[in-house]
Amino acid sequence: MAKKSKPSSRKAAKQTEHAAPVSKNTNPHVESPEASPTPAPEVQVPEKIEPQPSAQPNLPSPPEKSPITTDRRFQINGRRMIIIGIVLLVVVGILQFVANRQTNDANGFDPATQKLVSEVSKLAVLPQDEKPTVTTVVDTSKLNQSFLLNAKNGDKVLLYFQAGKAYVYRPSTKQIVNIGPLTQPTSKIFLRNGTAAATMPPAIREKLGQTTDYTIVSQDAAINQKYAKTLVIDIAGNRPDIATRIARQINGTVAILPEGESPPDADFLIIAGADSL
Fold first, then answer.
1. pLDDT above 50 for 222
2. Does 236 reside within a domain?
3. Residue 143's pLDDT is what?
4. How confident is the model at residue 12, as a pLDDT?
5. What's the pLDDT score for residue 22?
6. With a threshold of 0.90, does the pTM exceed it?
7. What backbone phi and psi angles, to 5 degrees, belong to 249?
8. Which of 22, 62, 67, 171 is buried most deeply by CB count within 10 Å?
9. Looking at per-residue confidence, does 66 or 120 come out higher?
């Protein structure tokens, strides 16, 4: 009975060999490939081929502008423009000054006289071929000319010796106070040497000798012999018009009698200065 049991064991082994193969997956959490569903096949869409740009040589990129450099350039250019503008203003000012000076020299007038003549010419017809001598009334009590009877201190007097006319103008009211004939009495002049030279500078006599309106009565030496400018003094103080004319004729300056100098017996005293040498 024991020998009959062996065939049955062999039969069992053959059945085992023909059985379904057992999965070798030892991971209990991963399903066997036979148990998972078969995935649908993927459809591949061809990718769009972009046109490739033509190859270009690698050129260096331009340097970026620094904002600091730009600001500095702007500041430098601004300073240059300011300097150029200042220079132009200076040049224009110089040219304007030269042009005005040439105009005044051509007319023979300084700016103040030119303005005064322009104002008076709007009120009266003035001589055109003569430069006037302009004086200012400072003391009406010493005036003895008929055309100065209505004058007040501060009035301007325009003297036209060649035309023989005088115009009294009041700047405060811009009115002509009086117009009258200008007489030229012979004036007595005393000469005084105010320089270190031994004799009176001859230039003064030569300039005074160009007219017969004056008579030189005498001369002497001044107490102070260091006068820089030639002075013309109206001794009586009532002929400022004649004193101004004499001063213009000899390139002198109207002044009062200097301290220490004695008044001579004459209408006018001329003290020769170093500028007359």
1. yes
2. yes
3. 74
4. 47
5. 46
6. no
7. -70, -35
8. 171
9. 120
* Distance separating alpha carbons of residues 101 and 44, to the nearest angstrom: 100
pLDDT beyond 90 at 47: no
Q: Domain boundary at 181, 208, 229, which? A: 181
Domain interval for residue 206: 187-276
Q: Which of 137, 153, 181 is the last residue of a domain?
A: 181
Residue 151 in tokens: 């004058």
SS3 call for 179? strand
User: What would the DSSP string read from start to end of 130-174?
Assistant: SPPEEEE---GGG---GGGTT--TT-EEEEETTTTEEEEEETTTT
- Please check whether residues 236 and 264 belong to one and the same domain: yes
Contacts made by residues 238-244, CB under 8 angstroms, sequence distance 24+: 238/142, 238/143, 238/144, 239/187, 239/267, 239/268, 240/135, 240/136, 240/137, 240/138, 241/133, 241/135, 241/145, 241/157, 241/159, 241/166, 242/187, 242/267, 242/268, 243/268, 244/133, 244/134, 244/135, 244/159
Residue 231 DSSP SS3:
strand
Q: Which among 209, 127, 123, 119 is positioned nearest to 162, based on CA atoms?
A: 127
* Pair 130, 121: CB distance under 8 Å: no
**Based on the number of CB atoms within 10 Å of its own CB, is 242 exposed (0-12), middle (13-18) or buried (19 or more)?**
buried
For residue 234, what pLDDT is reported? 93
